[in-house]
Amino acid sequence: MADYSQDVKQLLEYIGGSANISAVSHCATRMRFVLNDPSLADNKKIEDISAVKGTFTQAGQYQVIIGNDVATFYNEFTKISGKEGVSKDDVKIASKQNQNPIQRAMSVLAEIFTPIIPAIIVGGLILGFRNILGEIQMESLGQLMIDGMAQFTDAGAPIYNRIVDVSQFWNGVNGFLWLIGEAIFHFLPVGITWSIAKKMGTTQILGIVLGITLVSPQLLNAYGVAGTAAADVPFWDFGFFQIDMIGYQAQVLPAMLAGFLLAYLELGLRKIVPQAISMIFVPFFALVPTVLIAHTVLGPIGWVIGGWVSSLVYAGLGSSVNWLFGALFGFLYSPLVITGLHHMTNAIDLQLVADFGGTNLWPMIALSNIAQGSAVLAIIFLHRGDKKEEQISIPAAISCYLGVTEPAMFGINIKYIYPFVAAMIGSGIAGMISTIFNVTANSIGVGGLPGLLSIQNEYWFIFIICMGIAIVVPFVLTIVFRKYNIFNKSDQTEQAIVTEPELGK
């Protein structure tokens, strides 16, 4: 087992001492600090510590990359510093002291969507696979599998020309997978209201019940509202007023507004209702009014606002200057990640899926991830032989290509600046091409190279071209920028050193 005592003492000193640490925790590879005064941390000296592989600040947390031995390092640090570790959730709460109001709002948004993203990714992959089964034309396969017995329409075109038409097995798979897809997307409000309750520290089962009341089968399905005449919309009749029985399947904003109302009502009631009767009255007077207000006020308002947002984005993507929209989004997405503002794209993506059956934003996010990874790949090539940096750069490049960019951006690209800019340019070009050809994803998916699996199958070819652009352009530009010292202040090109040959050689 490595002895990190000296490294720990140095880190403690360079970070400003124990008095400067408000909270400390660790994750899989990093120490996470909330510092009372972040300016006291000496980045240069900290990064010179042998056990440290890089530093960065995000969401109010000062993070020090240690690697796989972080648990051992952390235990030594808490022993020497005298600082007791806390959970990652406690660190997140403490870190808000270093965040401005916008960062706090984005942090809340991130904490709401992060727990449900794995389900959304699975749903996106399922929709993509179902598209292959149900949409790709398989005329020759169909004729082969039914031994030339295909029936023909009057026009002479084969009826059985898709995978689901020629294989009962895959037809069954297609139908079965919709069970999961429907659960994820149609019942998305349940996940959102639950996640808000969890984040706000309120009763999670009430959040789940609230979500169910927004998507109950007795309600008119949100997807059927547009095709239903006003006179045919079901309603609850209270005598002197009526409430339309409209569901909010796949709707994001109505669920968020209702979820926060429930949470704040419960928190407020806890303060005024005596403990002896709180078990009865707090859940009742929090849930019932919330459901009523959700179906009369918040739901309709959220639906309208969500429609405005998705329509505005969709208009930009479909306008005559959509190439500019795509170029700017692709170019600026990585800086948004630094600020935390990128978390708002999750809500926009899901609203686009609900309103238009797919999202044009998410493919550009996947391309941005690839571009950042390609810039790191160029740094690995340029700095080959630097074993210490490769402990950061190689895993960072892999994680980028699998959809996680923070290690690459904070550990490598932002450190040198020029690879970060090269990645932004490559992402901008790829985003522009993607938008021009209307590349659409079924939903949010696995970022990076596996993102292809979430793209609607008719756009696969052009998305592969965009992926090639996101790989080649950042790699080449990173090398060019370093060679000619463009956007390069800290990684100057090595000059050739000419020495006289030694005698006898």
From TrEMBL:
<keyword id="KW-0598">Phosphotransferase system</keyword>
<dbReference type="GO" id="GO:0005886">
    <property type="term" value="C:plasma membrane"/>
</dbReference>
<keyword id="KW-0812">Transmembrane</keyword>
<dbReference type="GO" id="GO:0090589">
    <property type="term" value="F:protein-phosphocysteine-trehalose phosphotransferase system transporter activity"/>
</dbReference>
<keyword id="KW-1133">Transmembrane helix</keyword>
<feature type="transmembrane region" description="Helical">
    <location>
        <begin position="246"/>
        <end position="265"/>
    </location>
</feature>
<keyword id="KW-0813">Transport</keyword>
<dbReference type="InterPro" id="IPR001996">
    <property type="entry name" value="PTS_IIB_1"/>
</dbReference>
<keyword id="KW-0472">Membrane</keyword>
<feature type="domain" description="PTS EIIC type-1">
    <location>
        <begin position="107"/>
        <end position="493"/>
    </location>
</feature>
<keyword id="KW-0418">Kinase</keyword>
<feature type="transmembrane region" description="Helical">
    <location>
        <begin position="108"/>
        <end position="129"/>
    </location>
</feature>
<dbReference type="GO" id="GO:0009401">
    <property type="term" value="P:phosphoenolpyruvate-dependent sugar phosphotransferase system"/>
</dbReference>
<dbReference type="Pfam" id="PF00367">
    <property type="entry name" value="PTS_EIIB"/>
</dbReference>
<protein>
    <submittedName>
        <fullName>PTS system, trehalose-specific IIC component</fullName>
    </submittedName>
</protein>
<dbReference type="InterPro" id="IPR036878">
    <property type="entry name" value="Glu_permease_IIB"/>
</dbReference>
<keyword id="KW-0808">Transferase</keyword>
<feature type="domain" description="PTS EIIB type-1">
    <location>
        <begin position="5"/>
        <end position="87"/>
    </location>
</feature>
<feature type="transmembrane region" description="Helical">
    <location>
        <begin position="204"/>
        <end position="226"/>
    </location>
</feature>
<feature type="transmembrane region" description="Helical">
    <location>
        <begin position="272"/>
        <end position="294"/>
    </location>
</feature>
<dbReference type="InterPro" id="IPR011296">
    <property type="entry name" value="PTS_IIBC_treh"/>
</dbReference>
<feature type="active site" description="Phosphocysteine intermediate; for EIIB activity">
    <location>
        <position position="27"/>
    </location>
</feature>
<dbReference type="GO" id="GO:0015574">
    <property type="term" value="F:trehalose transmembrane transporter activity"/>
</dbReference>
<dbReference type="InterPro" id="IPR018113">
    <property type="entry name" value="PTrfase_EIIB_Cys"/>
</dbReference>
<dbReference type="GO" id="GO:0008982">
    <property type="term" value="F:protein-N(PI)-phosphohistidine-sugar phosphotransferase activity"/>
</dbReference>
<keyword id="KW-0762">Sugar transport</keyword>
<dbReference type="InterPro" id="IPR050558">
    <property type="entry name" value="PTS_Sugar-Specific_Components"/>
</dbReference>
<feature type="transmembrane region" description="Helical">
    <location>
        <begin position="416"/>
        <end position="439"/>
    </location>
</feature>
<keyword id="KW-1003">Cell membrane</keyword>
<dbReference type="GO" id="GO:0016301">
    <property type="term" value="F:kinase activity"/>
</dbReference>
<feature type="transmembrane region" description="Helical">
    <location>
        <begin position="459"/>
        <end position="481"/>
    </location>
</feature>
<feature type="transmembrane region" description="Helical">
    <location>
        <begin position="324"/>
        <end position="341"/>
    </location>
</feature>
<feature type="transmembrane region" description="Helical">
    <location>
        <begin position="300"/>
        <end position="317"/>
    </location>
</feature>
<feature type="transmembrane region" description="Helical">
    <location>
        <begin position="361"/>
        <end position="382"/>
    </location>
</feature>
<dbReference type="InterPro" id="IPR003352">
    <property type="entry name" value="PTS_EIIC"/>
</dbReference>
<feature type="transmembrane region" description="Helical">
    <location>
        <begin position="176"/>
        <end position="197"/>
    </location>
</feature>
<dbReference type="Pfam" id="PF02378">
    <property type="entry name" value="PTS_EIIC"/>
</dbReference>
<dbReference type="InterPro" id="IPR013013">
    <property type="entry name" value="PTS_EIIC_1"/>
</dbReference>
